[in-house]
Specification:
Blueprint (H helix, E strand, L loop, with lengths): L2 E4 H10 L4 E2 L4 E2 L12 E3 L3 H4 L5 E3 L10 E8 L20 H17 L1 E8 L4 H10 L6 E5 H9 L21 H7 L21 E6 H6 L5 H6 L5 H8 L18 E5 L2 H9 L5 E3 L5 E3 L4 H14 L5 E3 H4 L3 H9 L3 E7 L13 E4 L21 E4 L7 H17 L1 H14 L3 H11 L6 H5 L7 H7 L5 H25 L2
Helix pairs in contact: 3-14, 3-15, 9-11
Length: 495
């Protein structure tokens, strides 16, 4: 399948200086795209007519019409206050930026294809309905958004379609994240992907927030400038975090009433390791994962981070002390934390914060590191997949590309430009940081699949202040290798 970018609107975006495209060559680049994608041809004819159409368009067969048929999408339900579906559950415009963008995106595709998009909420982050339907061969659902851990299990059990087998789905189109396509392909097969079609996965990306009031109080360096000069490293982060500490109520004990350099929870260690260039696994010449986690660099990164994480007078973790993320956010809003490790969904809660704050990428290991790395929370991040019992595979490809293209026109700008940049952040520099973060996504199969428990290993260590990474790794290494072998065997047998 091909796609096109209409010329008149392309000119408009060029004038506006849109940061999310590389338009001079006709190449659309998504907010997650650090490596680019295949070129799209520019349609220079009938520009007056094209000016009324979307900037990005999936190239569909002329007259494609599904006669109002239902297109069933499995989504998250509403049982969780944070991880509820925001992509397909809108039933009308309410004035909310994201709701209205999601609704307009959906209704435009329904009009384009004469199709009825139906959301099917599911417990267990989308897993339950997919599994039940496929095992019974009911063919009830066309696609689904399932949390990453569950999606990996469904893939290993051969309950999903290989997305490369959907001939009508153009995975090179700019609305699919090329990092996800590349990183999540295993043995030449791809069972899950993401991109502009959804913002659910973006909400789970881990980042650092910093409190400008405390930064200025301590007369610390400008972290934005450090990022720009390639000096935003783990050592610099530790140095700055260690400079803030106070027993605010003078009771001689450090708790939620006091002030810290770092407010965090256990996931930070895994995101910090990945940010510093650790690879839980890397793919070999056959495109299968091999275990590469334990090495001198990984040990060094772990020791650097735990130096500050394990100091109860410098940092506090809500997952360690059994409190909620809301408690830590409240401390940050009350100027009692210089840095706050959190996910993008937490930024919405910062709107009520009086003190200005900024957003930073996860630090590099050192100044020689070539790029930043960020990843999703595999426990909650929703990934797109297609059930193995899908009845109309050809239709799925057309609909998903149409949704992806219209999402790039409508949903992504609403989230990225209006929601995060205009509402969530308070300075132009944070906007630049968002560009860096979304352009540096990585999907480490070892971390996402959690082979032998290795993906979550360091999280438990941090919650318990454990320091012996070598022994923890040794206790899981054989299980991780066995799990990798089982996955490789399953993929080869059913490939």
């Amino acid at each position: 399948m091909k796609f096109r970018i209409t010329a008149a609107l392309l000119a408009l975006f060029l004038i506006a200086g849109a940061s999310q495209m590389t338009a001079c060559t006709g190449m659309g680049q998504s907010e997650d795209d650090s490596s680019g994608s295949d070129s799209a041809s520019l349609d220079t004819e009938d520009t007056q007519e094209d000016s009324q159409t979307s900037l990005y368009q999936a190239e569909l067969p002329a007259g494609l019409d599904y006669g109002g048929a239902a297109f069933h999408i499995v989504t998250y339900d509403t049982s969780n206050a944070t991880w509820y579906d925001v992509d397909f559950s809108a039933t009308g415009e309410t004035g909310d930026t994201l709701n209205d963008a999601a609704y307009r995106r959906m209704t435009e595709v329904e009009r384009l294809l004469n199709i009825d998009i139906v959301a099917n909420p599911s417990a267990e982050y989308g897993n339950a309905l997919i599994r039940k339907s496929v095992l019974a061969n009911d063919g009830l659902y066309d696609c689904g958004f399932v949390n990453t851990h569950a999606a990996t299990t469904l893939a290993e059990e051969e309950l999903l379609l290989d997305l490369y087998d959907i001939e009508t789905l153009d995975l090179s189109a700019p609305w699919w994240d090329p990092n996800a396509v590349n990183d999540l392909t295993v043995g030449g097969r791809l069972f899950m992907v993401t991109g502009d079609i959804s913002i659910m996965y973006k909400k789970s990306i881990g980042v650092l927030l910093f409190n400008k009031h405390l930064l200025n109080d301590q007369d610390l360096e400008d972290p934005y400038q450090l990022v720009k000069e390639n000096k935003w490293t783990i050592d610099k982060f530790n140095e700055m975090a260690a400079s803030v500490s106070a027993d605010v109520n003078g009771d001689g004990a450090y708790d939620l009433a006091d002030k810290y350099g770092l407010l965090y929870y256990c996931d930070m260690i895994a995101l910090g390791l990945i940010g510093g260039g650790t690879h839980f696994t890397e793919k070999n010449a056959e495109d299968y994962p091999t275990l590469t986690f334990y090495n001198d660099r990984t040990v060094s990164i772990f020791e650097k981070y735990t130096q500050i994480m394990y100091d109860p007078q410098k940092s506090i973790s809500w997952s360690r002390i059994g409190k909620s993320n809301d408690d830590i956010i409240a401390m940050f809003q009350d100027n009692r934390g210089l840095f706050n490790f959190n996910e993008f969904h937490a930024i919405e809660n910062m709107r009520r914060m009086d003190t200005a704050f900024g957003i930073l990428p996860m630090p590099m290991y050192d100044a020689s590191q070539e790029r930043y790395y960020h990843t999703i929370n595999p426990h909650v991040a929703a990934m797109l997949l297609v059930p193995a019992d899908c009845r109309d595979v050809k239709r799925v490809g057309y609909v998903l590309d149409a949704l992806g293209a219209e999402s790039k026109n409508t949903l992504t700008p609403a989230y990225y430009e209006q929601y995060l940049k205009s509402k969530g952040t308070r300075d132009n520099e944070s906007e630049e940081m968002l560009d860096i973060i979304f352009n540096s996504m990585t999907y480490d199969i070892g971390y996402l699949y959690d082979f032998g428990g290795i993906g979550g290993m360091t999280l438990g260590m941090v919650n318990n202040y454990k320091t012996d990474l070598a022994s923890e790794y040794a206790s899981r290494e054989s299980g991780a290798r066995e799990a990798i072998d089982q996955m490789v065997e399953a993929f080869r047998e059913n490939g």
